[in-house]
Automatic annotation (TrEMBL):
<dbReference type="InterPro" id="IPR050696">
    <property type="entry name" value="FtsA/MreB"/>
</dbReference>
<dbReference type="GO" id="GO:0051301">
    <property type="term" value="P:cell division"/>
</dbReference>
<keyword id="KW-0132">Cell division</keyword>
<keyword id="KW-0131">Cell cycle</keyword>
<dbReference type="InterPro" id="IPR003494">
    <property type="entry name" value="SHS2_FtsA"/>
</dbReference>
<dbReference type="Pfam" id="PF14450">
    <property type="entry name" value="FtsA"/>
</dbReference>
<dbReference type="InterPro" id="IPR043129">
    <property type="entry name" value="ATPase_NBD"/>
</dbReference>
<feature type="domain" description="SHS2">
    <location>
        <begin position="7"/>
        <end position="204"/>
    </location>
</feature>
<protein>
    <submittedName>
        <fullName>Cell division protein FtsA</fullName>
    </submittedName>
</protein>
Length: 712
């Protein structure tokens, strides 16, 4: 037999390993040999290899027996269970206007472009913690389209733009690496890899059936893998980490049995009337009817069915038309009925399927017409098709396995290694935006330094094509430095102001704050800092800069028998000219502080001239102010005027006459009228607003008072 024409497939399951060898004849696969062996220990759990050497021993034993029939086997096709499965639905397009009739290679290029897009999407989407730890293990074409029209196949078609939509499936590196390690330890080389539900669906649900909303559930020992078809394509893959081992565990727990004994009991539950004998861990023999054991398993079977149904409804978003059960766990009693109930579909719509006949495979023996043979037959069938294979590279001393998606580039290697390509450029440092007295200034960051890519010691580019066993060394670029300027570099300070205060020379620096906090010239600045420089320009700012607080002189008096104090604030001159606090200053100005003067009695007593304290009349045509109320001031026993100086320590008596209506006599007194100026002989007439009146007549604001004399 020509071994170059042989296809070798291994289904490495949680409970057992099935090996198949087929020979390609006229486009079909003729099954020539098959072997099965169970793991001697629980070397696999939930589809994950836990004991590589134990699994490798079983693989070697199965391979050895097959080789005794067909000859030397070196390359093997395998499938992975959907443990920790991640799926992405991705589209890709291809310009085809100038290509003429499309070929199978064009179709394949479009598929691979979609897979590369899926890898890029996984690397940037954040769907998984470390994209470099995930491998694409298979894909299914959802649809092709040409110029916007959905089409079954692109081969032989012409158009401007072709497109594809695929479902790409990814598994953690740990799952694939342990699988690869076991295969290598058995002396084999992994030729192709797919996903178990992809293999199973290609056997039981051909493209002619995929217009139906069907669900394929591969119930193994550790996992239950789900695949769904609808509208002519596969629409999703999923996984439930529960399967046949949960039922075995339930038997073991209920009857206190060794796990392997419980597995043997489970396989004998085909007939409800059958009596099954077994011995528990205490050495006590038992003989129970199958129905009794099945009844004890009912809650666990319902739990398994509900978990599978939940995954189906999540992926499908509605009840499916039918469910096909495969895998050894599909034979679990009550499972089809429980799954139908959980999905709320007729029980007849959930069925266990066996590979009685498979399109493209001949010579299937009766021993393989079992539900658990569907997946290995699917792996064998895919081994002769367009599946994925690997190339091995090293990135920064880290081994990386990439699926050989046609023209892989160094950029793909960096993507798989989780290295951000943007990190090679070296970004410029972040610039600073700083405000100086309300004016915005920008300080740019330093330039970045580009990284380097070396392949086998030689410089390389991102677009260079990868080869198997390439060794890449990636040096990331270095980012530019973010500036950290000093305050004096950004905002030069004004020259100090030199002044002479009371004969002493001073130099005053302008106050500077950063974000409202006093700062020194060597203060380092940060982004968004607000710098405020206050120039010293007035007398008040000079005094504040010298921390001089003006202190008033305080004088004390006895006013109407009570103590009273009065404060007089100091006054200043600039260059001998009286100044106020807001007076401007220039370098070299001379400032003198004047001794506070003594206050007047009016200031001490708070006497002010108010408009309502007087009325105004015209006396003999001249304006005259008439007080409405009168003050009486006695200073140290002597009458005094309000404008006199109030000597500190003085005794002051101060009275105020109540408000009253002024009379004509008050007008004469206020006008300092001297009767001696009148003629010695004559008649005197007092006129108020032109009419004769008496000295006791009341006057009001604006009246006219005149003194008229006539000779007798």
């Amino acid at each position: 037999m020509d071994n170059n024409q042989l296809l070798f497939a291994l289904d490495i399951g949680t409970r057992s390993v099935v090996g198949l060898v087929g020979e390609v004849q006229n486009g079909t696969i003729k099954l020539t040999a098959s072997e099965r062996e169970e793991h001697h220990t629980r070397a696999m759990l939930d589809g994950q290899i836990h004991d590589v050497q134990e699994v490798a021993g079983v693989l070697a034993a199965v391979t050895s027996r097959l080789e005794a029939t067909v000859g030397k086997l070196t390359k093997v096709a395998v499938a992975a269970a959907g443990r920790a499965l991640c799926t992405l639905r991705i589209s890709a397009e291809l310009e085809t206007a100038s290509r003429g009739p499309l070929t199978p290679e064009d179709e394949r290029s479009l598929e691979l472009a979609a897979i590369q897009t899926a890898q890029a999407e996984l690397a940037t989407s954040g769907a998984v913690a470390d994209p470099a730890d995930y491998y694409c293990v298979g894909y299914s074409v959802v649809s092709f389209s040409l110029d916007g029209t959905r089409i079954k196949s692109l081969v032989g078609q012409r158009g401007k733009r072709s497109a594809i939509e695929v479902i790409a499936t990814f598994l953690p590196r740990q799952v694939i690496d342990s699988l690869q390690s076991s295969i290598q330890a058995a002396g084999l080389e992994m030729a192709t890899l797919t996903l178990e539900p992809i293999a199973a669906i290609n056997v039981l649900i051909p493209s002619t059936m995929r217009h139906l909303n069907l669900v394929l559930v591969d119930v193994g020992a550790g996992t239950s893998d789900v695949a769904i078809t609808r509208d002519g394509s596969v629409i999703g893959y999923g996984m439930v980490p529960l399967a046949g081992d949960e039922i075995t565990e339930a038997i073991s727990q209920h009857f206190l049995l060794d796990f392997n004994v419980a597995e043997t009991v489970k396989r004998q539950l085909g007939s409800n009337n059958k009596k099954i004998a077994f011995t528990d861990v205490l050495g006590m023999p038992h003989k129970e009817s199958a129905k009794t054991i099945i009844d004890s398993l009912a809650p666990k079977v319902v739990e398994l069915a509900q978990a599978i149904a939940g995954e189906i409804l999540t992926l499908n978003t509605q009840q499916p038309q039918a469910v096909l059960l495969v895998g050894g766990g599909a034979l679990t009693p009550l499972l089809p009925e429980a799954l139908a109930e959980a999905l709320d579909i007729p029980a007849a719509r959930v069925a266990i399927r066996r590979p009685d006949s498979i399109e493209g495979i001949t010579g299937i023996p009766s021993a393989l017409c079992t539900p658990d043979a569907v997946t290995p037959l699917g792996i064998l069938k895919l081994a002769g098709g367009r599946t994925l294979n690997f190339i091995n590279i090293t990135v920064n001393e880290r081994p990386i396995r990439l699926f050989n998606l046609s023209r892989l580039t160094i950029a793909d290697a960096l993507l798989a290694a989780g290295i951000d390509i943007r990190a090679l450029r070296g970004r410029p440092g972040m610039g600073l935006t700083i405000s100086v007295n309300g004016q915005t200034r920008f300080i740019p960051g330093g330039h970045g330094i580009a990284g380097q890519i070396m392949r086998s010691g030689q410089p390389a580019k991102l677009t260079d094509i990868l080869c198997d066993q390439d060794i890449l060394e990636i040096t990331p670029g270095s980012d530019g430095i973010t500036p950290t300027p000093l305050l004096r570099e950004i905002a030069p300070l004004p020259e100090p102001l030199t002044i002479l205060l009371d004969g002493q020379s001073f130099q005053l620096e302008s106050p500077v704050t950063v974000n409202g906090i006093p700062a020194e010239p060597d203060t380092r600045l940060c982004d968004r800092d607000q710098i405020c420089i206050t120039s010293i320009e007035t007398l008040e700012q000079v005094l504040a800069g010298l921390n001089l607080v003006a202190t008033p002189a305080e004088y004390r008096y006895q006013v109407n028998g009570a103590d009273r104090s009065y404060r007089v604030w100091p006054k200043y001159t600039i260059n001998a000219v009286t100044a106020s606090l807001d007076s401007p200053l220039s370098p070299g100005d001379r400032i003198e502080t004047l001794k506070p003067p003594l206050p007047t009695l009016a200031e001490v007593l708070g006497i002010t001239a108010k408009d309502d304290d007087t009325i105004h009349v015209l006396f003999n045509g001249a304006p005259c102010a008439i007080p409405v109320r009168r003050y009486s001031i006695v200073l140290d026993g002597q009458p005094a005027e309000a404008g006199q100086t109030a000597v500190p320590g003085s005794t002051i008596e101060f009275t105020i006459s109540p408000d009253r209506q002024p009379l004509i006599s008050d007008v004469l007194l206020a006008a300092d009228f001297d009767p001696r100026t009148l003629p010695p002989v004559g008649r005197i007439t007092v006129l108020l607003n032109g009419l004769p009146t008496e000295y006791t007549a009341v006057v009001t604001n604006g009246d006219k008072v005149d003194i008229k004399t006539t000779e007798i």
